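Design review, sub-item: ligand-bound model
Attendees: FS, YL, KQ
YL presented the inputs for the magnesium ion complex:
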Amino acid sequence: MTAGDVALLAWNDYVGITRCRGIPAEQLPARMAHGLGWAVAGQAMTPFSDIAPNPWGPMLEVRQVPIPETGTRVDIWPDAPAFHLYLCDARTPDGADWDCSTRGFLTRALAELHAATGLTLKAAFEHEFLLESDALNPAPAFTVEAMRLIAPLAGDIALALHEAGLEPETVEPEYGVGQYEVTTAPALGVSAGDRAVITREVIREAARRRGMRACFSPKPDPSGVGNGSHVHFSLIDDDGRNVTHDPAHPSGVSAVAQAFIAGVVRHMPALCALVAPSPVSYLRLGPHHWSCGFASFGIQNREAAIRVCPSTDPDPVVQARTFNLEFRPPDPSASPYLVLGALVHAGLAGIRDGLPLPPACEGDPADLTPQQRAQMGIRELPATLTAALDALLADDVAAGWLPPVMLESYLSVKRTEVDVAAAWSSEELCAQYARVY
Ligand code: MG
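KQ shared the predicted structure:
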């Protein structure tokens, strides 16, 4: 007997978790216009299912309405029905965008960027994760052995991402024991967020089907390597041209992108509350791990929070097209929509204020003296989630990026998460997050 097809109507919440409701696939046509109802108190859930104090109560509902272009159906596993999923937009009963949806946050940020500059963002995430399986032997970092140990799974990931239209570009071994990394081609606007959310779920599914688990916690083990979720991005005009590059400037960065970078550096401490949003994120974020500990900018510098990635192609046309910037603090406990939305807001603030490019940091900013860092305007990133949440509240501009009810409820969820995690040792903290992410 052939198994049925259950389509998942899904959304990514404040804590970066993709939740869903399921419907038999034959119900899809009837559900495309208005989706399914969802009690929004669910948005107040911490990763551990505690419900934080919230403004919504038991009554308020939104519709989770499937977005046709996010429809994903991957049918490559002989032992399971197709992986069938639609991402949703959350709409209030009168059809308006719900002001607390993470996807809506990115959509509105992109609309503001476009209205002010005529530009949009093209972006791709680097997905780092650990594979957990009793059957997986440890292999040295970056080796052929590490890849061939998981050859069937690596093949499934490549095929599944391809079938899903997500344009996989790399499937490779990383530095940590059992750590791998997957990248896809960049996508424009809100699709970049959609692509990141779906890519993670497809990787999880592929691992699950092979009896393994893909763990996307920022720090699965206190003494192990962290999982980052770096974002590569460029600014694109209405003709599809990448306007991030200026070969005449010593940094290689165009004027508009220089101001964008400056905005990101200025708001970096507040940004951490949205892009490194878990207590365990702060076991990852820090100097000497290539995850970055300072609000700095650098050219080809993997200890900088925002890095210029010049193209190595000799052709100037290709150089201009592929020139991009990398935003390194984000980790996979953050919603990709909040990461991109916050990035866009911070960059736009820099453009609006005409900020100058900060001095490029060469080497690890941790190796500079505090005086040298002060001279270069390089600040330390928050050391805890509480410090990051305080930085968000203290930054009037950044706090204003979130509608008031979103700011209030986001802070409530995150402060509840801090309280829940407060009792845990580093080991317990890592173990708890590794189970969920
Ligand atoms: Mg990596």
